[in-house]
Amino acid sequence: MIPYRVVGKNDFRAYASFALLVLTLAFFIWEIGYAAQQGQPMENYFQNFALVPCQVGQQAFSETLIDGVRSLFLHGSFTQFLMNMVFLWIFAPVVEAFLGHRRFLMFFFIAGFGGHIASILFNRGDCTPLIGTSGAIAGVMGAFLFLYPAKRVETFIPVMARKFDFPAIFFVAAYLAMQALIAEGGPLSGTIAPYWDEMGGFVTGFGLMFVVTLFKPAPKGDPLEHLD
């Protein structure tokens, strides 16, 4: 499932979302350059740069914090990087338009660390580095679902070579189901453990948006937006 547009007009200039895209791209280019300089795959160095659940509590808190931030921008493959950027580009501007630039940046990092915390709590003995923006993006999708459960998401499904128009609640549910089944740590990857990084990020994002809307009303849905 590849989303390519959220139905409805949005003239908001999402500077924070764009900055995150540029920063993630810069990290990915650095990864390629570093791996080429070392003459070994970047995977060999994730233990040094990313957050590793089994190391939490065995190193300084400041080092854990820095590793956690770096983990949000490191990627293990071009496919992972590209898909994360597509989802960030499609869904983040809508959430940023509601929160504003600065609050969205705070939200993004809190959601990302929510995913990290879930991974640490449920996979504390795991020494696999946490890499990718997936947890933070899952948080963005949780916020998007809370704010706009009925919004339509135009989606292309390569296997069927067709595009579909799904309501947000269906699209997000299908997305989480795919991640839980296919992504590393899911049942189809050879284990029965859920994908805690994304699940934690989603719950954090959804919960944060619930708290925010206690003070700022959620936007009202436009029944005619499908005509856009």
CATH superfamily: Rhomboid-like
Shape descriptor: globular
Strand arrangement across the biggest beta sheet: 1-2-3
The N- to C-terminal Cα distance equals 22 Å
Class from helix and strand fractions: mainly alpha
What is the highest CATH level, the class?
Mainly Alpha
Radius of gyration: 18 Å
State the total count of DSSP E strands: 3
**Biggest beta-sheet profile:** 3 strands, antiparallel
Count of discrete structural domains: 1
Question: H/E element string?
Answer: EHHHHHHEEHH
What is the average per-residue confidence, as pLDDT, rounded to a whole number? 82
Q: Could you tell me the CATH topology label.
A: Rhomboid-like fold
Which percent bin holds the helix content?
55-70%
Low-confidence stretches: 190-194
* Secondary-structure arrangement, i.e. CATH architecture: Up-down Bundle
Helical stretch tally: 8
Q: Roughly what fraction of the amino acids lie in strands?
A: 5-15%
Give a brief rundown of this model:
The protein has one domain: Up-down Bundle (Rhomboid-like fold), CATH 1.20.1540.10.
Description:
The chain is mainly alpha-helical and 228 residues long. It has a single domain (2-6, 13-218), classed as Rhomboid-like (Rhomboid-like fold, Up-down Bundle), CATH 1.20.1540.10. Helix content is 57%, strand content 7%. The chain is built from eight helices and three strands; from the N terminus they run βααααααββαα. It has helices spanning 15-38, 46-49, 61-71, 78-99, 101-122, 134-147, 168-182, 196-212, and strands at residues 2-6, 152-157, 162-167. It has a three-stranded antiparallel sheet. The longest helix is centred in the first third of the chain and has 24 residues, at 15-38. The model is unreliable at 190-194 (pLDDT under 50).
